[in-house]
Every structure is written in C-alpha cells, then in structure tokens.
Amino acid sequence: MKKLTKLAAVVVGCGIVGAAGFFGFAEYGQHRSFPAIAADTSAAAEVQVRRGQYVAATADCAACHTVPGHAPFAGGYVLNTPFGVIKASNITQDPGTGIGGWTLAQFDKAVRHGIGSHGYLYPAMPYTAYAKMTDQDVADLWAYMKTVTPVKQKVVENELPFPYNQRVLLAGWNLLFFKDQPLTPLPGVTAIVNRGDYLVNGPGHCAACHTAKNFLGGDVAQGFQGGTLQGWHAPDLTPNAHVGLGQWTTGDIVTYLKTGTSRQAVASGPMQEAVENSTQHLTDPDLQAIAAYLQHLPASPVQAKGAIAATDPQMVTGKVVVESQCEACHRSDGTGVRNMIPAFAGSAQVNATDPASLLHVVLMGAEGPMTSGNPTGAGMPRFDWKMPDEDIAAALTYIRNSWGNSAPGVTSDEVHRARTQLAAEPWLNR
C-alpha cells in the first residue's frame, strides 16, 4: 500500500512538473521573437502595394476577413467549426479595433507563425500554409494592408467551449501539426511546378479544404485527396481519373479557376467564393503553374467499382425523377451545358465517395460564380421544398451510376441528415 501511495505521488508529481513545463513552454512560445524579414523594399511604394494586393488575392484574405456587403477586411465573418464559432478579426488600419498599431514584425508573427496580439491564433487562420510564404510576399502584403481604409469595428469574441477557448493549448496543437518553416523547392521538377507548389501549399492554402482532417483538425497524411467541411465536400485534386482531375487538361483547370466554370464543373459553395475573391484575379502563368503542380501529384488510390444495376429499384425510381426534374438543364446524355451547367457524365464530384456537396446543392440550390470571364453565372434551384428524401436519394443514386459513373448509392437517411443539418445551421447555406 505504501509503495502504491509513493508511486501515485511520483505520478502526480511528474504530471504537475510536466504540466508546468508545457505551460511554461507555451507561454514562452507566445512571446518569442522571429528573424527579421529580409525583403527588397526599394521599389516605389505603389509598386510594392500593387504586388501586395496580388498577394492578398492569392491568399484569399477577403474570404474570411470581409463580410459580404460590408467594409473590406473589417472582420466579423463567422466560421462555424467542429470546435465552436470563430469570428474573423478586423485587419484594417484602425489602431483600436484593427491592426493599425502593428509593425511588420507583428504582422509577420501572426501571418506566418500563428501568434497574434492575444496569443496563439486558431488554425482556422491558415498560418500553417502561410508559413511557407516568402519574406518578400509578406512584406508586400503588409505594404498593401497599410493602405486599407481604417474601419472602427470591434469583432465579438469567439464562441468556443472549454477547453477549446484556452489558446495556450494551441501550443500543443502546433507541436503536432504545424511545421513553422519555409517551403523547400521540389527537386527534379520544372520551375513552373515549383511555382505551383508555392501557390497551392503557401498563400493558396488549398489543403485547408481539399485535405481531410483528423478529430483534432490536423491534416491527414493523404494530401489533396478530398475533404468534407461545413457541409461541403472539397473534391480530390490529384490526377485520379475517377474522382480527381485525371480527365482535366491544363486548360480545363485554368479556365475553371479563372471563370468558375469548365466543361466538367461549376464552382459552388466555398469554391465559388474562392474563385470570385481569389483565383479569377491570378495571372494565367500562375494558374498554369497551379495546374502543373496538381498534375504532378501522385493519383489517389480510389478506383471505380461496378455501377449499381439499372434494374435496381432505387435506380428505376431515380431514372423517373431525373427525367422529370433534371434533364431539362443537365440533358438526357448527362453532358450539361458547357461553361454553364455541369455535366453529370464523368464528373469527379458526382463520383466522389462523399455525396455531401451533391446533397447540399440539390436541397438548397446554388449559384455559379460571377467573374469577369463569366459575368452571368447560372443558378441551380433548390428542391428541399419539392422532393422527399426518398426521391432525392434515388435521383442521386441514379446520377452517380449512369453515363459511365459508378459511386456508392445515396440513402434516404443521408438525405434526411443533410436536410436536418442545413435547416438547423443556415450559415452552411451561403
């Protein structure tokens, strides 16, 4: 008994020492300094600002820090995460409620190292990707941000339950999932592929949506093989011919990122916002670099399996529903209308293992992006009011197993869960 008591005391003592050590390490981490940025600031101010504006578009800063219809970069955008509600901060030059009193060093510390004025930042801010940005891009971005009109707007605090509201614990998350280091060029590839690597994995932070997350919100090892977040499925970006970009040419990828449409797909949900705020503003050489990098990735291992038989009762019902509700726009051969209405045939999103985006669009409808290259995006009507769960499940099962497609069937229970979630959480519908 005495031995057990002594052992317990040792364990408790070690726990106290370990906890004290962790919190000491975490506290130190919040206040440590980083090497000064080495950037060329000799260019004329307007040149550096113009470069910084391009970096801001590449990094899609507006997506989170601008509420549609409100002042640019004034914050307040609500991010609903599995861990609670996070409010995007005001990053205008207001000194009281924004970042007007910051230095370049403080800006860099937040953007690339995930440490802001209140301590560790939550990784909803993609500093894990921005860490790969160059000194020059960060300096240029700061030059641009200093020209943003100050807006006095205090952002309401995050709504996170314990223990997620303890920022100090993010030191542990960073140890597990954050590599605070610049991007190393890929060996043996062209300069254009390396440029694409930088854009995709650095400012573009594509993995934030297109890589699946574990239960702690960290990336899983299988990068760019698709992920589901906030009721949308971000598809596989690898050259997989069934669920990825294997059937897309460089031109297809460039056109999609430039206009939000292609012969295969129309951007919707978060990708619609990304195209409108970010990718349509990139230069063609940079879009071609992104395409080159994605085509350089190893294809994911997902393979097409046998399609559900046309005689299956759900397929029979689905055929009737699709013929009456879908074919007027998407056509009887499943080819859609190029650059306006997405094709069903051979669609990676249709064949995706997770039908979340299909359920979202059918239930709530969607609008195509409005871009300079495609100013009148098409719209998809919502069917939540019109079709019961069983009919939607049958229609999607038919679409996912016709015209050469093959994907798991959709159940009425899946439709019901999606319908319930979207009704209870209207923020998912934007």
From TrEMBL:
<keyword id="KW-0349">Heme</keyword>
<dbReference type="GO" id="GO:0020037">
    <property type="term" value="F:heme binding"/>
</dbReference>
<feature type="binding site" description="axial binding residue">
    <location>
        <position position="210"/>
    </location>
    <ligand>
        <name>heme c 2</name>
    </ligand>
</feature>
<keyword id="KW-0408">Iron</keyword>
<dbReference type="InterPro" id="IPR014353">
    <property type="entry name" value="Membr-bd_ADH_cyt_c"/>
</dbReference>
<keyword id="KW-0479">Metal-binding</keyword>
<feature type="binding site" description="axial binding residue">
    <location>
        <position position="65"/>
    </location>
    <ligand>
        <name>heme c 1</name>
    </ligand>
</feature>
<dbReference type="InterPro" id="IPR051459">
    <property type="entry name" value="Cytochrome_c-type_DH"/>
</dbReference>
<feature type="binding site" description="covalent">
    <location>
        <position position="329"/>
    </location>
    <ligand>
        <name>heme c 3</name>
    </ligand>
</feature>
<protein>
    <submittedName>
        <fullName>Gluconate 2-dehydrogenase</fullName>
    </submittedName>
</protein>
<feature type="binding site" description="covalent">
    <location>
        <position position="209"/>
    </location>
    <ligand>
        <name>heme c 2</name>
    </ligand>
</feature>
<feature type="domain" description="Cytochrome c">
    <location>
        <begin position="313"/>
        <end position="403"/>
    </location>
</feature>
<keyword id="KW-0677">Repeat</keyword>
<feature type="binding site" description="covalent">
    <location>
        <position position="326"/>
    </location>
    <ligand>
        <name>heme c 3</name>
    </ligand>
</feature>
<keyword id="KW-1003">Cell membrane</keyword>
<dbReference type="GO" id="GO:0009055">
    <property type="term" value="F:electron transfer activity"/>
</dbReference>
<feature type="binding site" description="covalent">
    <location>
        <position position="206"/>
    </location>
    <ligand>
        <name>heme c 2</name>
    </ligand>
</feature>
<keyword id="KW-0732">Signal</keyword>
<feature type="domain" description="Cytochrome c">
    <location>
        <begin position="47"/>
        <end position="149"/>
    </location>
</feature>
<dbReference type="InterPro" id="IPR009056">
    <property type="entry name" value="Cyt_c-like_dom"/>
</dbReference>
<feature type="binding site" description="covalent">
    <location>
        <position position="64"/>
    </location>
    <ligand>
        <name>heme c 1</name>
    </ligand>
</feature>
<dbReference type="Pfam" id="PF00034">
    <property type="entry name" value="Cytochrom_C"/>
</dbReference>
<keyword id="KW-0472">Membrane</keyword>
<dbReference type="InterPro" id="IPR036909">
    <property type="entry name" value="Cyt_c-like_dom_sf"/>
</dbReference>
<dbReference type="GO" id="GO:0005506">
    <property type="term" value="F:iron ion binding"/>
</dbReference>
<feature type="domain" description="Cytochrome c">
    <location>
        <begin position="191"/>
        <end position="298"/>
    </location>
</feature>
<dbReference type="Pfam" id="PF13442">
    <property type="entry name" value="Cytochrome_CBB3"/>
</dbReference>
<feature type="binding site" description="axial binding residue">
    <location>
        <position position="330"/>
    </location>
    <ligand>
        <name>heme c 3</name>
    </ligand>
</feature>
<dbReference type="GO" id="GO:0005886">
    <property type="term" value="C:plasma membrane"/>
</dbReference>
<feature type="binding site" description="covalent">
    <location>
        <position position="61"/>
    </location>
    <ligand>
        <name>heme c 1</name>
    </ligand>
</feature>
<dbReference type="GO" id="GO:0016614">
    <property type="term" value="F:oxidoreductase activity, acting on CH-OH group of donors"/>
</dbReference>
